[in-house]
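Hi V.,

You were right to ask for the full record rather than a summary. Here it is.
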Amino acid sequence: MKGNFEHSQEWKFEYMHRLVQSLGLSLVLLSHWQQSDYPLLPLIFITLLLLYPSLTFKMSVYPQAFSNFKLIVQTIRCIDGIIIGTLLCLLVSNPLLDLGILLACASVYLRLPKASVISTALGVIIAVVLAQFYSLPRVEITLLIQAIIIFLLIGFAVSCELVKNLIYAQLADKYQSLSKINSDLRLHTFRLSKYLSPVLRKVILAGGDVRVTAQEKTLTIFFSDMQGFSKMSEKLSSEELTWVLNSYLTEMSEIVFQFGGTLDKVIGDSLMVFFGDPDSRGAKTDATACVCMALAMAEAMEGLKQRWIARGINSPPSLRMGIHTGNCKVGNFGTENRLEYTALGSAVNLASHLESAAGGGEIIVSEQTYQQIKHLVYCVRCEPIKIKGFDEPVVAYRAIELHKRQCLKQSIVSQ
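Predicted structure:
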């Protein structure tokens, strides 16, 4: 929009200049009409000169109609130079008028790109060479013609100043309008960010795909909920319940984002998070980051429970978590009008079942996740878990703590 506006204003400005230079040369040719051996020739030139400004402006309105509009623009600049050069050669006996014409031309063409200045200068040189070759006569014009040309130059200078001020005013209005639009977009983006994880938000704002599509990836999936939350919520007022839930979700979501997880769903007190999409750091690092996140959540949960007890909430719930690493279908699911970015598959179901099988304060990980983290996280093998939909009991482990707690935690966060 801004480029089209500047383009149109530039050509309006040049139209005014072409009109002045064409009228000036037409007046000079008209004064020389009776002295010419071929009186029809000046009339033809005058007609073409009077049509020239309008024709070039019409061409500028529809640049898409020409396959090589840039070449046409440079050709027009060269013709401008020929007109200016011819006018200067005819008025060589009137140095003051030549000086005024030169100043008027400089005020226009020195604002143009370098290529346009060169094309115009080339046109002036062509006109001067042709004038010398064909011995172009020096025209003695009457005082009336001189006065008209001077009036045109003064009128052009005044018009230029008025047009310049108008353009500046219009640009200022457009700048204010664009600034307001940008401010509104920033506000809407900020509000939208409340519903998306930083990783996903970054992908979308960078122009990521938002079509109905999915791909298979190896993800580490995490589920959690608060054991005993439903029973506790029945004893709390709506204000207390809101405060407990918001403090819990705020604390946990910050930990998710700290470790680079994608927060997929928040359903009541339940969270679904996965690692490995949209950005993956490798299956081992993704799994380790997920388990480190779970351990950080368990630690944060103890602090939350102390805060809730201090507010008079007795027997606060405990956090239980389940983690599994496996292949999933991940991407945008739904319709073209309503999409949900999520992960689907048996690996997701298994992670959910592991969370359901966990006790209060426990982090249960599958065999696949354990193989990725066993060199970094101390785990204890659990009794095989019978899960509906799986033929054999699932081997699982309870994650206890990091082997190198502080060092590893800092490493995961920095990655």
